[in-house]
Amino acid sequence: MQELAISLNTKSHKPLYEQIYQHIREEIQNGRIPAGEKLPSSRRMSANLQVSRSTVDLAYEQLLSEGYIESVPYKGYYVCSLEGLCHMEFKEPEKKERRQSREERYRYDFAVSGIDPDGFPYNIWRKISREVLSEEDPQLFQLGEPQGEPGFREALSDYLHYARGVNCTPEQIVVGAGNDYLLLLLHVLMNGSSRIAMENPTYCTAGHCLEAMGCDVISVGMDESGMLVEELEKSGADVAYVMPSHQFPTGIVMPLRRRMKLLSWAAKAEDRYIIEDDYDSEFRYKGKPIPALQGFDTAGRVIYLGTFSKSIAPSIRISYMVLPMGLLEIYRRKGILFSVTVSRVDQKIMEEFLRGGHFERHLNRMRAVYKAKHDLMLGRLRKMEKICRVSGEQAGVHLVVHFVNGMTEQEAVRRAAGSGIRVYGISRYRMEGQKRYEGEAVLLGYSTLRLDELERAADALEQAWSDNKKV
Amino acid sequence: MQELAISLNTKSHKPLYEQIYQHIREEIQNGRIPAGEKLPSSRRMSANLQVSRSTVDLAYEQLLSEGYIESVPYKGYYVCSLEGLCHMEFKEPEKKERRQSREERYRYDFAVSGIDPDGFPYNIWRKISREVLSEEDPQLFQLGEPQGEPGFREALSDYLHYARGVNCTPEQIVVGAGNDYLLLLLHVLMNGSSRIAMENPTYCTAGHCLEAMGCDVISVGMDESGMLVEELEKSGADVAYVMPSHQFPTGIVMPLRRRMKLLSWAAKAEDRYIIEDDYDSEFRYKGKPIPALQGFDTAGRVIYLGTFSKSIAPSIRISYMVLPMGLLEIYRRKGILFSVTVSRVDQKIMEEFLRGGHFERHLNRMRAVYKAKHDLMLGRLRKMEKICRVSGEQAGVHLVVHFVNGMTEQEAVRRAAGSGIRVYGISRYRMEGQKRYEGEAVLLGYSTLRLDELERAADALEQAWSDNKKV
DNA sequence: GGGTATTTGTCCGTATGTATG
DNA sequence: TCATACATACGGACAAATACC
Fold first, then answer.
1. Which of A1, B84, B303, B459 is deepest in the core (most CB within 10 A)?
2. Is residue A87's pLDDT more than 80?
């Protein structure tokens, strides 16, 4: 039979198995599932509904005991004919939807950061967390190594190697609480005197952090392949901060040729480095992922920066960097003074999450979730061809929208706001005083909104932008 | 392919199928099973490993879903090539020589850092941890406030107020992963140009961190009341780093008079600050605790630094600082750029730990534990009056031992080592090149040793030090 | 060369242990 | 103590490919 689409409510106080049981019973009573039909196996059903098999088992067992279905061992469950069964109509009392009134100005926020609200793998995380805390290993609560737990770094280097093509040993990895912190640490390692080139527009938070530390942040132009290496060369920068896998905010994926050019720029001098922020590399919707820049680096000039903020949750604060050999030596002199900033417990949890393959399964799940949202938004926006076109759609969890009907970025943002929708102009990601990026565009992040919200938000957005009268 | 020799551990808490899965995955990742190779059939494997077929099935299924292997129906499972990822030579990191050998030379380690091995409140922590993760609050996994969770800061400010006499609102608190990090952040706030005075001897790690950041660290002498304010004045320092509640390593508690003098030094200029590291304030064995320096500060010149490293566990990495108003403004401009470095989950757990009164109960328990150890060691050392006398015994979890029989610090350390006991000479806590502190002494930390171990260690120590023949 | 036994992945229902409230 | 939910592990049945007589 077809897949049953049962809407389960985890938060409801009604047990899951009962919700399943009731739904199937109704289907049978209504004749929507005819007698003789085979029900989906408990495995299939549990996979569909994202619940444990035994939950489905319980539901089936109840149906069985009440004679709605019969079990044929090694084959499956089959719907009985209802003859002779008296059944009363049972009306579910309507539950009032408890809507939380939001005082927020915005009904929908196309935030470019953040994760899917239902995306956190609670169950596994809870389980691993419990396991780790149950070991009662006295060592676990003494201070750990400054670089991070050896076991965690090993699991991480395995993952980075096969999933991202990063070429490193666990010894090169430094674990830290967030990219900001790692940049801070890096700044200490580099003796605080770097001139850092960033693309324009870029991930300003990092730029402002670097400026706050006292770095010279230099804005370098970009074309459709990413940072312009010629300009970089002229800029006199020592360090280039790039996001080859998915540049923020443009969504540009740096092609191989440009990567090589960048690497040869770095190889030209001893004190040149590339900081590769492997932003959003986990989510790609087209083609195969390009391995990290770091994997092609033979001169030891690439510092690879990665995080679990996007792939798991921003709030768990686990990032990591891979240092080239030269910097590693400096780290061992100076960096080692600074204690690790991630809880040893959290590191252990993350290690198990990686080793148990949960991370990959989680990524696969999230990829599917984001793909659905991505496709929905892309479809909707492509229908609005009179108004806009889309770029940066190959990867990540946001789209870049350019207007073809003469609407300015500012106006698009204002109109959306007028309809209670928050969108983000790309201009806000230019470093201050750097107006070299001329394109106007709006960013639509779809990670934090649920599918049905996206649908409604897209409706409202279309209306707001289609409206011809000026606001 | 050949039979895989997987050593299964039935007793381990790790599921069988996961052990199988992990083993095979690692073999594939390391290339020990080449791409295209056929895995043993589930039957053969299950016979070999003496487990059920479906257990093997589960393991294979997981490998399948993650793309490590592919299934050819009625033929077998075959290892996939890790397609799409460039394959570079992956050097197997040679296993490092067990460093433990050096640490195992010591039977007993009177380490001055670390906590009681049985001291971590596993049960409550597990319970709260579970509760926090069970709430399934989607907000909890989005990025939190840079300063730390408002609720946590509120609980913290309450605690600091009544337990330490710290005078602050939650808005002044900045949460961070460890004192080192907070110093780093502070350095950014202070524009990286500070001349910092530290006592001598002192907590060198902090000193070296500050130096690595580029601070001028100036050593200032001390007497039995702590830092000499006259010298501080002459030194030209902007910032004084002190530990009034229990100076490390001397154990000196700064009396009120000296505190006031210090405060008036700071009040003399706009850019002068005192960093009050409230080290070990939680554990006092005599008299009532002196409130924090910060509570007496009317000029807004004290930065209060606290941590749960000693009171709960070093590895959980939760520290905090209280900024005076002037710095708070700067923080709101520059510091706010840096995301918080403590996991939001951990903050929530800690908040509950505070609010539920568990922290105080825990402290009481630990105070009793440490008091017992303290009294034991103090008693034993006082019996050795021919050899040494003790100082710094009012608070903390270590004692300072001065020798009265002419034994040098170096010799005391060596003799102890000869008996397999690790003790720490106080000289190692002088900043390099600063030899102004003339006293020789040895530190005995008793937090990480259990009572019975302490007993035996004290025996051995007495013998080693009593022994009159030179070593 | 055609039939048969074996091997294989796949799918199934079931039983048990454990965490949690 | 009991209800709920989940994870783990078990072994039987099936159909297609394959090896063997």
1. B303
2. no
